[in-house]
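Our preliminary data section would be incomplete without showing what the modeling component actually yields. Below, a chain of 459 amino acids is followed by its predicted structure, encoded as C-alpha cells that our downstream tools consume directly.
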Amino acid sequence: MRSSAGAVLLTVLLLLAGGAGTDTVRGGVRQCDTGGQVVRYLVVFEPPTHSAQAAARVDAACGELGTFHAQIAVGVATSADNRFTEYIGPRRAIASREPGHTSQSAGTVPRSPDEFTGDANDLTDRQWNLRAIRAEQAHTRQRGSDDAVIGVLDSGIDADHPDLRHSVDSELSAGCLSGAADPNPSSWRPGASAHGTHVAGVLAAADDARGVTGVAPGARVASVRVVDDAGRVTPEAAVCGLMWAADHDFDLVNGSFLVSPWPGTCARGSGRDAVREAIRRALRHAHERGTLTVVAASNKAAELTPSHALAPEGRACEVLPAGLRDAVSVSASTRDGRKAGYSSYGLGVIDLTAPGGDGGRCVLSTVPGGYATLCGTSMAAPHVTGVAALVASERPGAPPDQLRRTLTETATSVPCPDDDLTGNGTQDTHCEGHTGYNGFFGHGRVDALTAVEQATGFR
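Predicted structure:
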C-alpha cells in the first residue's frame, strides 16, 4: 500500500500529466486496470524531463517506462490499462499498432520476379542509375572512405552478401523494432524483407568487377533495423534508430521509410502530434550531433505540404520524416529523367531528386542470395546519401549543413515538365516553382562528380 505522502505525490503527478477526471481514484491513488492486454506506447514529455520524473509520470498513468531518451525527453512505455493515453495527457502518447496491421512504410514499388538474378558476373552495365548521377566518373576522384559511416535505417542488411561483407560494420549495427536498441546480430539482420539489403547495395556495394557497384563503395554502413517484415515502421522504432545513429556519431543516415501509424498516409489520426514531435526532436538531435539524415519522399504520388504552412483541411498532406526540416527529402526520377509517377512531390519539401526507376527500368542492386531490381523513392534516397558519403570522405568532419549545401548547390537543375505524366491527355499533377527549384525535383538531380569536385575545392 502506498503511503499518504506517496498518494499526495501521485495526485500532483496526475495533474502534471494532464489526467482526465473520469477515471477511478480511491484514497488519492489511481486504480489501474492490470488485466488488459499489455500495449507499447511512444510517450513525449516536456523538456527537460529527467528519467526519474518520466518514470513517475508513466507510473501515475498506470504504465511502466522502458526506454527513455533523456536528450529529447521521449520514452517508450507499456501499459495494460487502455486509458493510458487519457491518463498521460492529450497529445503525449500513441500506441503501437496491433500485430497484423500492415502498411507500405518502406517506400518501394515491387520488383518484377523475372528481373531477379543471382549472377555474380559484372552487372554494372545494367546500372544506368550510376551513370545518371555521374557516380562512375566521381569514383576516379573519390570512392568513399571507411571513416564515413552511414546508418541504414531499414529492414536489415545481409552482411554475408559478397558485395556487402566488406562494408557492413557489425559493431555499429543494432535492431530497434521494440523501440530499444539491441546490438545482437539477430536483431539487425534481415528477416523476410530484401529492402534494406537492396538499399545498402545502392549505397556501398563493392567495386570489384563482380555484381553491382555502390555510389560510395568505400564507405561503411551500419544496419539499424527499424522496418519489420510487414514493411511497418513504428514511431518508437524510428526514434530509436535516429538516436542510435546520433549517439554513435554516424556521419549520415539513410531513411528509406515512412512512419505511418494511421490507415491513410496523410491521415491526421490520434497521436499524430506526439509522433511528429518525437521524430522532429530525434532528427534535430541527430543534426546537432553532426549527422545528416536523407529520406525518401514516399511512393504515394501525394502533394506534400511544408510542415510550417499546412494547406486547408482535406488537402494537407505531410509524411514523416520527409516533411520535417532537418531531413533531406528525395523524390524519384525515371531513367529518362522525369519524375516517377508514384513519387510524392511538393514545393518546400523536396530537396533533390535521384534515380528511382519505373516500369521495367528499375534500379539493380543487392538482395539476399543475389541481385534484383526495385523501383521507388527508397532507391532514390541512397543515391543522395551515397554522394553525401563521397563528400564526407573528401571533407572529414564536415557538418550536416555544409554537406547539405554541397548536395543542393552542385545538383543538376531539372525544370518542371509541361506535359502530362501518364499520357492520358491531361497534366495529372502540378509542378510549382522554377528550373532551379521546384516541387518535383527540388534543387535538381544529385550530381556525384560535381559534388566531389566542389568538396575537393574546399581543401
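The chain has two domains: 4-95, 113-417+426-458. The first helix runs from residue 4 to 16. Preliminary results of this kind motivate Aim 1 of the renewal.
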